[in-house]
Structure formats: C-alpha cells, structure tokens
C-alpha cells in the first residue's frame, strides 16, 4: 500500500496532500473548518479498490491561506494542482460541505479531469443554506473582520467565514454543462435547504439524489454506513 504526503505550491499557497492505497484515484475534500483527518473513519471503506487522495483545502489543516480571496473556484484549482503533481489524469471526487462545492466547481472547470462527483451536503449558492445558519455565518464574518481591523489575532477566521458568505456562485447554466455522473446526498434536516438540493439535482443532467430522512449536516460521519451504501451503489452503477 502506498502512503505518501507532501506539499504542492499553487497561486501563492502551499497545499498539503496525502495519498493512501494503490487503486483508482478517489479525491476526498473536507468541509469548512475541517481538514483531511475528517475522513479518517471513511478511508477503509474504499480500500483496496481506490487510491485515496486527501487534500487540506487552502486555509485549512497544513495548507497555507495565501493572500488571495478564498473561493471554492480557487480551491478547485488547488486540487487540480495536486492531481497534476501526482500524475492523476482523472479521478472520482468525493466532497463534503465546502468540499462538495469544490467538487462541483471541478466538474464545471475541468470536466475532463472528473470521472464522477459525490457531493455530500453541498450547495451552489450561499443562499442555498437555511436562513438562520446563513445569518449566523454572516454575523461571524463581520465580527471576526472587525476584530481583524483592530489588529487582534484572529487567524484566518474572516476568510473562512467569508468563503461561506460569497462562495460558491455556480449558475444553473454552468451546472447543466456537467457531463460526469453526479450523486447528491443530503439530510432533510441539513444546513442546506432541501429545496435547494432538489434544484441542484434538476439542473445537473442525470444527477442522482438521495435525501436521508432526519439526517443533519454532519450525518455522513455519524451514520456512515447508510451514506457508504448509497455511494457504493452509485459507483457500481457506473462501473467506477
């Protein structure tokens, strides 16, 4: 089993990655405020069939924030840089939350590099979030930005909360151009509005949609077997 880790420089930031296994490439992308360790409990579900490529998103884990404004589009470019470094021509992309948004950005930006997308609890517009969580995030962004202007040590919190305020911005027209298989997974009590998830499924040609009754935003990590069952079925359907 291959086990490798390193850093890739892209657009003013050092991006950390780790690979596990020897099979077909499967890139895993974590959510806002997390890092690649979030997937530690999921890796064994995919071995030995897949080579897992774990990436710390820009501004998270061991990856630099850099000086550029954080967007899911920029983060998608970072993933492509890691794939280029590893010699991965195309891969299955599995993303959670902001990682799901990055996965969809990749399917729009570089369709030739994406075999399939598994997007868990993602959104294509900040207003796809439920009203109260979205308001909380905007207030957090203003709070940490204010402290930053005062010269207080706030880390990259303004950038991370800002990311959720202004990104992603994928239009229906862009989503209609996605030509790889897409599986959308979400909970009916998710941070993302169910209506928004359904709209995403309507825009993306041939997208598969599974809504888990009563599941929350992080249920992927609490009810993992149920999610994995759907993911495996999807991968088997497309012989991936």
From TrEMBL:
InterPro entries: AB_hydrolase (IPR050471), AB_hydrolase_1 (IPR000073), AB_hydrolase_fold (IPR029058). Residues 25-140 form the AB hydrolase-1 domain. It comes from the Bacteria. PANTHER family: AB HYDROLASE-1 DOMAIN-CONTAINING PROTEIN, HYDROLASE, ALPHA/BETA FOLD FAMILY PROTEIN. This is AB hydrolase-1 domain-containing protein. It comes from Eubacterium callanderi.
